[in-house]
Amino acid sequence: MPVPWEALIPSALLVTMFGVTGTLANITFRAQNQWKPPRYHLERWDEMMIARDNRLTGHNRGQTSDPVIPSRAASS
Amino acid sequence: MSTTKEQQAVGPQPHVAELGTTSAPLKSAAFFIGAYCKEFNEDFMLCKAESRDPAHCLKEGRRVTRCATDLITKMRENCLEQFESHWACLEQNNHQYYRCRTVERPLNTCMFEKLGLVKTIPGTPEGRKQIHEIENPVLKRQQK
What we know:
heterodimer; A: about 80 residues; mainly alpha; 2 domains; about 0% strand; B: about 140 residues; transmembrane (chain A); mitochondrion (chain A); NADH dehydrogenase [ubiquinone] 1 alpha subcomplex subunit 1 (chain A); electron transport (chain A)
């Protein structure tokens, strides 16, 4: 259709699709990390601490500041 | 539960409950643990330097655990709100200290007033201000 803005229609489609892709990717990453941004640049120390968090709370990103250890995790 | 050969070798040990705090609160409290438990931590590291055998440093390890548990309990009693907000900020920011300075300052002042503990970074060059005390650092987070 010969209107001045006809090229903007597929451009808008591309922008929208990139946006949807990015949003869905962000949602999948956050969903695996208890709705927090995922951890990155992890060293062996960080991996060991994350495994310890898993033993203490049941999830890699679970956190608690309670110094009392739950009985199911009693041997760290 | 049957004892292993190593457990039989060292004999019965006093039971000290392991610290149940996870990584973000520990990272938030790290420098205060360093200030509060300095002697016990240094004893443990010197003991480990003698021998890496786990059975060699059980006593020093128990002392470290008890001291850290004691400090976390005190922190929660006195500065719970600032502590919780600081480690929640760290959880959102890949556990990087430089991204959570605005939340760290109230925690440092609370810890100093209530418990007299100061965060100092060992190895800072002489005459240089501590990195967490610089008002406008060059390397900072993207957003304000």
